[in-house]
């Protein structure tokens, strides 16, 4: 059980700054998920935490103690790889036993024949055996112990990789996209299994993914990373409900949040293409700002109420819900919003519809893309406050 | 009803298509097959037939003598000398060239620095024509003027032997030249094998506690190189068995057959003494030997695969 602190880590490869002074605190027992687009430096960060790569600057601390100078073996960290990285010539049993054998037996004692002659080896082997079997039992691998990795399904390999990480009871687990090679159904299953494992072991997890569903469902904390920087660390709920940066808002949530570019007027209201949002902002007059609405926060305007009008481009029926793509005059990208099937029953592409914007859920971002508050809680001044210009 | 009539027709179409596929398959394989027949199988067959005759190149008569040639071989001291020399030569070269090739490949792979340079340097001998290089070796190994003996004399004050004329050293000298060339070739094969090992395996091994290079070698590299190793050992053994050019260019099997090897002996019997039938019999033994080596190695590899 351990807390992990990453303190202003920097890493440059060639001329390319991969990590730009990244700091992150992972509390003891947390399930910290790192999400971010491909190439943003997630794997690099994990490799530095585990000691597989060296940082140019900054520090990695476990329980407050710097481990930056320690070899991976001595950091008491286990890692699960996207490719599973099982040793192909070893059985499941041997794969799981590797971390114990390498830690508890000297090179000589590991040799097939010589090892038997070394005093004490038998006792160590016995302890290793019982540890491996306990772990295999926990992961329901007992039936598969004599198989080779090639004889296993993807999910089974994944469990072996987990077993190899678990068996020595490390303080911290690092997982680099462990589920991305599995099919959708198995992924859902393994997601639950890993979350359960986390609860059961009580260890600290750092989990990398670019699947936001994984991030939202499994974690206690989510860190959103982009271009070598961590933009926000928060609970999954808050990451979604209160994105600190427009890039976070755009990355989390599917379909993507709708962003309307605007300009702050003298009276503090925000003029966006086609209408004005009257909730007062603190932003300087005349500055650029943008406002975001998640698809579920836009609906059809009530009959008879003046509303910004949009033209439907197409409708996507997913079953329980319908995604409507519509174009708003003056806005380049189409808007996406979510309706219930009965609401969309009579709609067709080409129709003109009025948009009902849920202003209470609007996200305001300043010119730099940082979250900015509306002065008055906008939730109190719904719909009527939208003035159309 | 209609369906019932349709089914056989469909099956017929299937058969026709399958037949067409077979035909085009054969068609595609034909050129290679013809070449193989013409260049390998037929000559082998001819040699097999000649091996049981007393045929001499250019002779008008040819007589079936059964296993006469083989019986003669059993008591032929030169043949046995060549046979033993080939074995000794192979035992000297194969482990050395394989282990050196692996060592160099590991060193090159371990450090990106100068990788391209060393890879080229070690591979250069492979591209050199041995017969042409023989002159250079003759000079390097010369008893008085040679580079090696000059070096021995000046640095260590030892007077080196005559590497190519001393019966005690001539085979080792030839083996050295072979190793010089084969190491680069093996290195390239090993490098390809090393490239195919996923780097995640090394990362996993480090995290699992393999903090020394030897641990990671034993856990990841060595097992993963299995198939490459088989191929390298096999090819090195076969090349080593087939040693001819250095012998022909540098020693002609001498002194006193001290560097005579199987292939050179075959060449001498067949093309210097024109005893075609006798040489063919030796060729058969040579072929059988090579086949045996290949089978043993492939078999032992497959058994290891099954066990592991
Ligand atoms: N050996 C290297 N030399 C130079 N640049 C590298 C090297 N390895 C990685 N990079 C760069 O570092 C950046 C971060 O890579 P990293 O593997 O950490 O990304 P990631 O966030 O894990 O991406 P993904 O989600 O695709 O796995 C990338 O832009 C990549 O191009
Ligand atoms: Mg990655």
TrEMBL record, chain A:
InterPro entries documented for this protein: AAA+_ATPase, ABC_transporter-like_ATP-bd, ABC_transporter-like_CS, ABC_transpr_MalK/UgpC-like, Mo/tungstate-bd_C_term_dom, NA-bd_OB-fold, P-loop_NTPase, Transp-assoc_OB_typ2
Molecular function (Gene Ontology), one example: ABC-type transporter activity
Tree of life domain: Bacteria
Listed name of the protein: Sugar ABC transporter ATP-binding protein
Compartments (UniProt record): Cell inner membrane
SUPFAM superfamilies given in the database record: MOP-like, P-loop containing nucleoside triphosphate hydrolases
Pfam family, one: TOBE_2
Natural source organism: Pelagibacterium lentulum
Main location: membrane
UniProtKB/TrEMBL annotation, chain B:
Main location: membrane
Entry keywords, A to Z: Cell membrane, Membrane, Transmembrane, Transmembrane helix, Transport
CDD domains xrefs: TM_PBP2
InterPro entries the record matches: ABC_transporter_permease (IPR051393), MetI-like (IPR000515), MetI-like_sf (IPR035906)
GO BP: transmembrane transport
UniProt family annotation: Belongs to the binding-protein-dependent transport system permease family.
Membrane topology of the entry: Multi-pass membrane protein
Name of the protein described by the UniProt record: ABC transporter permease
Highest rank taxon of the organism: Bacteria
Keyword Transport belongs to the record: yes
Transmembrane segments: 28-52, 86-108, 120-140, 174-197, 217-241, 272-298
One term under GO cellular component: plasma membrane
Compartments it resides in: Cell membrane
ABC transmembrane type-1 domain: residues covered: 83-297
